[in-house]
């Protein structure tokens, strides 16, 4: 059975573990090893995660299969009624079993309660699997963007779903 809960600061080690198991493998054929290391350290180590939760108002949801954490999502308000899905990761062993959809549906329920009309996200243009997943669950391309980040670029689509 799948369940989810809103994460607190105490859950950061669980999120770090899920990210460690799912993030690097996702991007190994998409971006350079240097960029993987840079982005991972900047977004998925303890202090950045704490900052996102405590200072930037990001809500994290952790999905559990029985009692095992298997994925997480994070979101925040970015416009009047626009929310951004910042992160969505399911560990490789349990991908393709409906957990990604379950987490996005949970995020949609949470943000709708807060008055959302649009859910937006960035996905790497070369992350074909994630793009196919988002197509399947009803997101559409809103824009293409190339965002400088340190010595690197994020070559992303911005996708949106009207709620
Ligand atoms: C992308 C990701 C979150 C999807 O989660 P998931 O649990 O594997 O996907 P689900 O099983 O919930 O799939 C939901 C639907 O999308 C479809 N889908 C999933 N992956 C797909 C793919 N690669 N190609 C085509 N369709 C796909 C499924 O068939 C399913 O369709 P259905 O509900 O109509 O049967 C997950 O694979 C993941 O964590 N990937 C690595 C990290 C990543 O890229 N995150 C996104 C960063 S922006």
TrEMBL record:
Domain N-acetyltransferase: 2-163
Gene3D superfamilies, sorted: 3.40.630.30
GO molecular function: acyltransferase activity, transferring groups other than amino-acyl groups
Keywords on record: Acyltransferase, Ribonucleoprotein, Ribosomal protein, Transferase
Assigned GO CC terms: ribosome
A UniProt-annotated Pfam family: Acetyltransf_1
CDD domains reported in the protein's UniProt record: NAT_SF
Keyword Protease annotated: no
Highest taxon listed in the record's lineage: Bacteria
UniProt cross-references to InterPro entries, sorted A to Z: Acyl_CoA_acyltransferase, GNAT_dom
Coiled-coil segments on the chain, per record: none
UniProt KW Ribosomal protein keyword: yes
Name of the protein in its database record: Ribosomal protein S18 acetylase RimI
Lineage: Bacteria, Pseudomonadati, Bacteroidota, Sphingobacteriia, Sphingobacteriales
